[in-house]
Amino acid sequence: MLQGLVAIITGAGGGIGQAAAVKFVQEGARVILAEIGAAETTLRRLQSLPGHNAAHYLYVKTDVSKESEVAHCVDMALQTFGRLDVLVNNAVAFEFGHLLPAGVSGSGTRTDHAISSEQWDRVFRVNILGYSYGMKHAVKAMQLHDADLGVVYTNDQIRGTSTIDARCRGSIINVCSVSSFIAQPEFVPYNTSKGAILQMTRCCALDFAPLKVRVNAVSPGTIETEGSHKHMELVGLSLEEGRRVFGNSCAMKRQAAPEEVANAICFLASTQSSFMTGSNLVIDGGATFY
Question: For residue 265, what is the enclosing H or E element?
Fold first, then answer.
């Protein structure tokens, strides 16, 4: 599905980013694992794959809040694999709270606090500027090769034959969230940043379309990752309770595995989604359709 493509995945050290990295390598892509911390777990998973080839991926320590490090990551993709076809913006800063004094909401949890300037700064730099840096430098790299990804269709619909050129230069996938478009209590900084990412996806899809670069988003609901485990702790739930409570928030009555989001990301990265740009795939087990 991704044979021969070169991809950068940010936040590849765990959760959705790790699942996407494994899926991409399995599907034949060459992958830059961009992660601010260590990526040992992801590297171990990749090393355990059948037919493992260490030349198919590279870990690059990257703080997405720093444009110079994002630019370096893109340069490493070009130097190592010769081109860049896919960017998955996935790195995230989780910051919760509200605009009221601590304790006013009455939830009694560790998310019931006023948001600090430091929290706003962190969520803005990672979740918004970080994504923008990735797109800025990725689209520049994608312009270095022809629009050679995909198929030119021969279309015969009785009234004569036409050709439809469905090729592109690259695909960018931004990991948003259902928090991009729903309200949640004591989620102000996180939801604000994710809403901005969804709108940035749409705007960049319009701007990049003439360059033949597609930009889409996925919006996961409750996914069982380290991030969701930490959120359970913040609201005073044990892991077992959290899985039950979080799972009951959607029609399917369970949390998703990160691989279920990775599958959608893989589709958007591939030429099978060639007529999609500015789209948002909601992967939430039926939490927001009603």
Answer: helix 258-269
CATH of domain 6-157+170-283: 3.40.50.720
User: Model-level pTM?
Assistant: 0.96
- Nearest CA among 19, 34, 25 for reference residue 5: 25
What percentage of residues in the chain have a pLDDT greater than 70?
100
- Count Cα atoms within 13 angstroms, Cβ side, for 204: 24
> Which pLDDT does position 230 carry in this prediction?
92
* Angle subtended at Cα 90 by Cα 227 and Cα 117, rounded to the nearest 5 degrees: 65
Catalytic residue among 57, 153, 190, 290: 190
Look at residue 105 in the predicted model and tell me its pLDDT.
Answer: 85
- Radius of gyration in angstroms for the set of CA atoms belonging to the chain, rounded to a whole number: 20
Half-sphere exposure of 153 (CA within 13 A, CB side): 9
Q: What pairs with residue 86 in β-bridges?
A: 7, 171
Work out whether strand 152-156 and strand 161-165 pair parallel, antiparallel, or are unpaired. antiparallel
CA distance 21 to 46: 8
CB–CB of 57/80 below 8 Å?
no
What is the enclosing helix (H) or strand (E) of 153? strand 152-156
Does residue 190 have an active-site annotation?
yes
Instruction: Return the structure tokens found at 207.
Output: 């701007």
Helix, strand, coil percentages in the chain from 3-state DSSP, rounded to 5: 45, 20, 40
* CA distances to 10, 20, 54, 146 from 82, in Å: 19, 21, 17, 13
Q: 13 near 35, Cβ under 8 Å?
A: yes
Residues of the chain with pLDDT under 50: none
- Strand pairing of 57-61 and 30-35? parallel
Q: What's the CA gap between 92 and 12, in Å, rounded? A: 11
pLDDT tens-digit map of 205-260: 999 999 999 999 999 999 999 999 999 999 999 999 999 999 999 999 999 999 99
